[in-house]
């Protein structure tokens, strides 16, 4: 049959280039191994129609086939992603439709709000299953490299608050405050007066509850509010894992708004994921397409160069830049381990499709950061054209 010849030719072509710990099990009982070693990953194909996903194994096609139940995959998430990436690399050309294509998305307030709620309002219990005890959903900071996740997340928050030189009595705005961990820490340890804003109802409700339970309601206010509607002036502003939702073309407006909210002698810290493609292209081999459809609707990653240019156009000067790519690879790796260990409990919280989406998404993120497909930068800014004589001359203050 035609499909037997094409499938056999495809498998042999890959085997001639590399050995993969992969086995295909077909609906007719046939087994095809991609290497001599024992398979770590088994893909079960229940019907010939699913072969179209395999024979053009972009990360989008493979992810879609798994998420939609067209194929069954057995193995640990890390190995599944590594094998899927190898299939893509050894079958597809990294150009044309499978290149790191830059997409320009039209953002509106309504679309941004819908995207945020799609991603974050799964359920608080779902996120609690695999995040740390403070529910920090962003890159941790492994100062020594051997910290547990909870410790590394707390160190990340302290690292940020120390970088921005937060002082007692300062006002702090946290844009995209999540479940409130940063503003609570800022109030508890640094005695700051904080406002956190989010568009997620679930985050808003739980963050307010946590603030009240911690006795911080007099110093921390959580708002269900778009950052564009915030008014006033703040001594310090943080944005952690939020600007990926803004859109590349809107970054100058975003930074301009942060600058308008910043006191003249204030400091802004933007912590966010960037693409490593200088042309602002998304993850290659269809990885970005999968994330757009199933995980982060309307999300866009910009290259660091684009980010720094947008900051300057928005009236901000970059004062300190730090690459934490390796830290995010480790963070996502721990999230994947937590997700796998608690898989049975997580399945009880979401439907099978959502479970599959998040399983491959988290593992895919760990792989993408490890491969330098995407990165993570913390950029500390001040207002442009200001007198910088009060700023430290070195980075020593961060570590003292």
From TrEMBL:
Domain DUF7884: 15-90
Tagged with keyword Nucleotidyltransferase: no
InterPro entries xrefs: CFA/CMAS, CMAS, DUF7884, SAM-dependent_MTases_sf
CDD domains: AdoMet_MTases
SUPFAM superfamilies, A to Z: S-adenosyl-L-methionine-dependent methyltransferases (SSF53335)
Family indicated by similarity: Belongs to the CFA/CMAS family.
Protein name: Cyclopropane-fatty-acyl-phospholipid synthase
Organism encoding this protein: Noviherbaspirillum denitrificans
């Amino acid at each position: 049959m035609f499909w037997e010849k094409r499938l056999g030719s495809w498998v042999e072509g890959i085997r001639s280039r590399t050995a993969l710990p992969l086995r295909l099990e077909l609906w007719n009982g046939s087994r095809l191994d991609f290497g001599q070693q024992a398979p770590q990953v088994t893909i079960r194909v229940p019907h010939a129609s699913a072969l179209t996903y395999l024979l053009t194994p972009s990360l989008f096609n493979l992810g879609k086939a798994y998420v939609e139940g067209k194929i069954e995959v057995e193995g640990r998430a890390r190995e599944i992603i590594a094998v899927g990436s190898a299939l893509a690399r050894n079958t597809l050309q990294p150009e044309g439709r499978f290149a790191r294509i830059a997409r320009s998305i039209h953002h509106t307030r309504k679309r941004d709000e819908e995207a945020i709620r799609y991603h974050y309002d799964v359920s608080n219990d779902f996120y609690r299953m695999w995040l740390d005890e403070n529910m920090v959903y962003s890159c941790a900071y492994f100062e020594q490299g051997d910290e547990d996740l909870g410790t590394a997340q707390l160190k990340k928050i302290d690292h940020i608050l120390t970088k921005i030189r937060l002082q007692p009595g300062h006002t702090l705005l946290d844009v995209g405050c999540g479940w409130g961990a940063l503003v609570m820490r800022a109030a508890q340890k640094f005695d700051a007066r904080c406002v956190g804003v989010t568009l997620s109802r679930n985050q808003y409700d739980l963050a307010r509850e946590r603030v009240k339970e911690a006795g911080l309601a007099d110093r921390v206010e959580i708002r269900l509010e778009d950052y564009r509607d915030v008014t006033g002036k703040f001594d310090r502003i943080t944005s952690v894992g939020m600007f990926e939702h803004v859109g590349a073309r809107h970054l100058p407006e975003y930074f301009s708004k942060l600058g308008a909210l910043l006191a003249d002698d204030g400091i802004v810290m933007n912590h966010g994921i960037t693409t490593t493609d200088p042309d602002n292209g998304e993850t290659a081999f269809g990885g970005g397409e999968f994330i757009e459809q199933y995980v982060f609707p309307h999300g866009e990653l910009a290259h660091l160069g684009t980010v720094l240019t947008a900051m300057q156009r928005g009236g901000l000067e970059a004062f300190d830049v730090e690459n934490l790519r390796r830290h995010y690879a480790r963070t996502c790796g721990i999230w994947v381990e937590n997700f796998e260990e608690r898989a049975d409990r997580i399945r009880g919280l979401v439907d099978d499709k959502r479970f599959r989406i998040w399983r491959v998404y988290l593992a895919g993120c760990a792989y993408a950061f490890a491969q330098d497909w995407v990165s993570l930068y913390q950029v500390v800014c001040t207002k442009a054209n200001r007198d910088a004589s009060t700023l430290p001359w070195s980075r020593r203050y961060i570590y003292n």
